[in-house]
Amino acid sequence: MRICGIKLTHDGGIAVVEDGRLVFCIEQEKLDNNPRYQHIERLETVVAVLAENGLAPRDIDRFVIDGWDGEIQSEFQVLSKGSPITLNGAPYVERDAENPLTAYQGSGLMLDNGVFSYESYPHVLGHVASAYCTSSFAKAEEPAFCLVWDGCIFPRLYYVEPSGVRFVGCLFPMIGHAYAAAGQHFGPYRQELRTGWNLGIAGKLMAYIALGVVHEHIMNVFQELYDYHFAGDTDLAFGYRNNSHSEDALLTAVHDFFDASASRLIAETPEDILASFHAFVERLLVRGMTSTLRGYSVPETRNLCIAGGCGLNIKWNSALRASGLFDAVWVPPFPNDSGSAIGAACCALAGDNGFVHLDWSVYSGPNVSHGKVPPGWQSSACSLKELASVLADNKPVVFLAGRAELGPRALGGRSILAAATSPEMKDHLNKIKVREHFRPVAPICLEDRAPDMFDPGTPDPYMLFDHRTRSEWKDKIPAVVHLDGTARLQTVSRTSEHPIAELLMEYEKLTGISLLCNTSANLNGRGFFPDAAAACEWGCVDHVWCDGLLLTKTGASQFEG
């Protein structure tokens, strides 16, 4: 059985699952230097992705489209050979809490001169399926809770077991976009015009709050206004909760909340306000989870999956893991909508066979190529041992290897790597990436050495939890230590077959250091570089390594740090 999952809206993607194995998932932002959050606007895109991977639409047994906005059903406006067509699908949230996994049956999917029927499942259930089916819990056939918190919904808790899924309840009445909206009112991203949602602010705020201090009196203001605007027995709060399906009403309510907050916090610095709001929401999350679980009968083993855009918040993930509420916590590398095409396909599997484990690899994105390298670059074969010497000489390298990683974070497939021993390296990388000075650069570290350098330093292969740099290492690896002493750690097993593992081991032999700086290889506001030529055209790093070939800019100069 070959299933094609399709995410048409932002973070558009196409995934193929065959007999329970993920064959590939191609996110649109990772093709042709496309913008972040790219939609699929033309159905020819689906045909092209299938063809690139040796398939035609007729080779697919079932097409599944991820659901989207709408209480009863969603509607998609797309082009097929230049002509507009309308496709309908499942809504954002399931309509039947007792039977969430209900498919919408559609027709009229026009692909390569053929017309195909398709299924569609609620968007939120795609998050549940992508998180649970890729977890070790599914592999062991153990049940798990699944927290889904997206931009325009309250945090929703589900209970998943191989035989099915049921909705447990909402933890508290705050939409995920409230975090990004805070940045429109306070700090460096403040703006007077507050229309729509900005998908890029939340991650930047998570870095910015390291400049601030959490104050209880600020959190008390947020608590009071949260009760009045969202959670309490006021007419305003009742209206907000009753209009939770209206994006415009939610947007207005959230901005009114922050306008009221600003009038009460005039004397406070924006960094302290945002740090305190982050901590306030974290407290809501843990308390809401504790309260919801208290009234729910569960087996002795408690597992948790986290999905939705808020699953990219490493500090909230870490708070839930440290809460003692769960035995194990799993966050896939694509908790946001970059995993929705996979989730759509997994919903179809679950509809037939229950929630079964998916055989998958994080390196299932587009294949890398050299492309047409521009003039001014010379190339030579380069082993990983030789590349380690380049890095040990304090020279940043664009590292492109095999298939791209899934999700929004560079995990060694489309990375810029550099030595972490120079305190100036972080500033240099931020400068060439056109990023603010407070943005962190992540460490990529051999898994068995991570506990020596970080607390807790537990395995974290997808950069989704917070770790604190141990004091004795802060001066040794300053480029990857964030302003608050933490690090967004990625660990790599020595037994991994990916080239990044061998490179880290070769670098360790040369330097005694088991980690490197790691940041994404991309143009500002764009997805990962699709090939070596794109990295060379960017030209801000003098060395590009691509599957065994080192491209060096003619007249390259060593970074001085």
UniProtKB/TrEMBL annotation:
Which key words tag this protein in UniProt?
Transferase
The Enzyme Commission number assigned here is 2.1.3.-
* Record carries keyword Metal-binding: no
Pinpoint the Carbamoyltransferase C-terminal domain residues: 388-537
Tell me if Iron is a UniProt keyword of this record.
Answer: no
Q: Protein name, please?
A: Nodulation protein U
Top-rank EC class of the record's enzyme: transferase
A Pfam family of this chain = Carbam_trans_N
Q: Record's family?
A: Belongs to the NodU/CmcH family.
Domain called Carbamoyltransferase: residue spans: 2-346
UniProt-recorded Gene Ontology molecular function terms: transferase activity
